Amino acid sequence: MPSVRRMILGHVVSGLCTKMNRTKKLQGDLLETPMKRCLSTFDITLLGVGHMVGAGIYVLTGAVAHNTAGPGVILSFLFAGVASLFAALCYAEFGSRVPKAGSAYVYTYITVGEFWAFVIGWNIILEHMIGAASVARAWSGYVDSLAGGAISNYTRYMMHGYTMAEPLGHYPDFLAAGLCLAYAMLLALGVKCSATVNSLLTIVNLAVMALVIGLGISYAKLSNWSSENGGFLPFGFTGVLTGAATCFYAFVGFDSIATSGEEARDPGRSIPRATLLSMAIVTMGYVLVGAALTLIVPYYNINPTAALPEAFSSRGIYWAKYAISVGALCGMTTTLFGSLFSLPRIMYAMANDGLLFGFLGHVNERTQVPVLNLAISGVLSALIALLFDLQHLVEFMSIGTFLSYSIVSASVIVLRYRPEKVTPAPSNAGTPSTLASPPTESADSNSDCNSVTSIESKLLDLSEGTGKLKPRYAWMAKFLGDGKSGMGVTGLVLLYIGGCISLTPLVLLTHMRIFPMGCGYFTVTYMVILTVGSLLMICAYQQNPPTGEFRVPMVPLVPALSILFNVGLMYHLSLLTWLRFLVWMIFGILIYFLFGIHYSKESTSPDSYSVLMATSEAERGAKWSATLQRVNQKSDKVPILNDDDLVH
Prior knowledge:
Elements: H1 2-21, H2 41-52, H3 55-69, H4 73-97, H5 104-111, H6 114-146, H7 150-159, H8 174-187, H9 191-218, H10 236-247, H11 255-259, H12 267-296, H13 307-314, H14 320-352, H15 371-387, H16 390-416, H17 446-459, H18 477-480, H19 487-511, H20 517-538, H21 557-570, H22 575-599, H23 610-613, H24 617-632
C-alpha cells in the first residue's frame, strides 16, 4: 500500500513539474497580431529614451554627485550605462527573434518554462504599476514645489491634521492619482496618437538637456575638479562604484522597447536599433549633464533635491530654472507613459496565453489597444500613487526589475546552445517572405527544387551540432554528457547563477570582517573558480549558427556579467522590501496554481515541431495546409506547392 501511494505521489509530482516546465511554442506567422503595427524605429527609440530619462536626470544626478561620487558621478553613470547595456543587449536579441508583446515574460516562457515565465510576468506587472505610481508622485511633488507648497498645504487643511502611517504617505496625493488616470485615458486613444505625444515631450526634454549641457560648458570652472575642491574623485573609486549601483536605476525602462514588439512595423530591425540608440543617447546625456553640473558649482555646494535650478541660480542664470522645470515635467511625464504603455501589454500577453483571466486578453477593435487592461492599470496605479510614499515605492520596484534582467540574460545563454527546429520564417509587414519570392524568368527546372530545399532548410534542424561538445572537448562528455538537448549548458547556467548568489554575500561578509580573513578569502576564491569554471565549460559547447538576426556579442560573457551585476544589486535591497516581495509572490503563485496552470493554452497545444516528426502523409498534409495556402496566396507568380513538393 505505501508503495502504491509513493507511485501515485511520484506521478502527481512528475506531472506537476512537466506542466511547470512546459515552454511556449511559436507557430504560424509571428507578425500576425490584433494590435496595430504602426511604430517606426524613431518612435520606439523615443519611447525608450522617454522611459529612462525622467526624474533621474533632475534629481539623481545631484544626489549622487553631492553624497556619493563627487565629479566622479560621470564615471558612475558610465559604468551603470555599460552594466545596463549588458541586459539591454539580451532584450534586443529576444525582441528581434520574438516580436511579441510581453517582453521578458515571453522570452522566459519560450526558453526556461511556464512557471518562471509567470513569476517574471507577475513581477513586471508590479514593476510597471509601482513605476507609474512613483513617477506620478514625483511629478506631483515637483509641481507642488513650483507652487510654493500650495497643493500639499491644501491637502493638509482638508485632512484636518490627520496623517497616515508608514509605508503609506503622510497625506493622500490626489494630483498624482489624477495624473495616472488622465494618462491612461490618453493611451486609450490609440498607440500612434499617444506615441506622437510621447515623442514631442521627449524631444522637449532632450532640448532642455542640451540647454543644460551648453550652459554648463559656457559657465564651466575647471577648478571645481581640482585638488583645492576635493579633486575629481573626492570619495575615491569606491564612491564611484557605490554611485554606479545607484545610477543603475536611471536606466531602468529600456524593456519598454521590447514590450512594443507587437506594434513595431519591422521588429526584427527596429527593436535592436532602438535599444542601442536609446542606451547611447541616455548614457551620453547623463554623463554630460553630470559633467556640466559639477563644473558649474563644487560638488559639496550642490543641492541634492534641486541640483540643476540651484546650480544655475548660484551663477546668476535665474531664467534657466523655468526651462529646467519644463524639461523635468516633460521627462517625468514620458517615464509615466513608458510604464502605463508596458503594463497593459504584459497583462494582455499573459491572458492571451491563458495564465491570467481571459477578459484581460481583449483588444479593442477600433483603437487596437487593450483598453480594459489600460483602465485596470490606470486605476490600480492611481490608487497606489494616492496612498503610498515615494521612497518605499522606488525600492519595491527595483527587486522585480533585477530578477527580470537576470532571468532574461540566463535565457539568452540557454537558447544560444539549445538545438533549434526552425519554423517557417514570418514575412515582414508589407514585404513578401522568402517562401513567397517569385522565381526569375531564367529559372530552370532546378528552381523548384531549390525553392523546396530552401523551405526545408528553414524547417529542418539547421544546427545539427548545436548544444554538443566541440570535437576537441569530446573527452569531457563523460563528465558533462553529450549535450544533445542543451541540458548540459542549462545545468552549467544554473551552477553559475548559484555561484553568483553565493559569491556576493561572501564578498560582503569578508569585507566587513564578519568571516575570519583566511576562511573568507579561501571561500571567495573557491566560488570565483566555480563561477568562472562554469563559464569556461559552457564555451566548450557549440552555439547555434548565425541566422541574420541580431545576436548578443560575446556569449556567454556578456549575459553572465549582466547576471552577476543584477544579483549583486539585489543584495542592497532592505529586508522589508524582500518581505513585501514575498507577499506579492504568494498572491501570484496562488493565481498560477489555482487558475493559470489549468487554463494555460500550452496544455492543449500540439508540439511545435510535430510537423517534422509526422510519420504519415495525412498528418503532414494537415499540418502544412494552412501554411501552404497562405504562401501561395501572397503572389500569383508563386508556384503552387503541395505535400509532394516537400523533401522528406
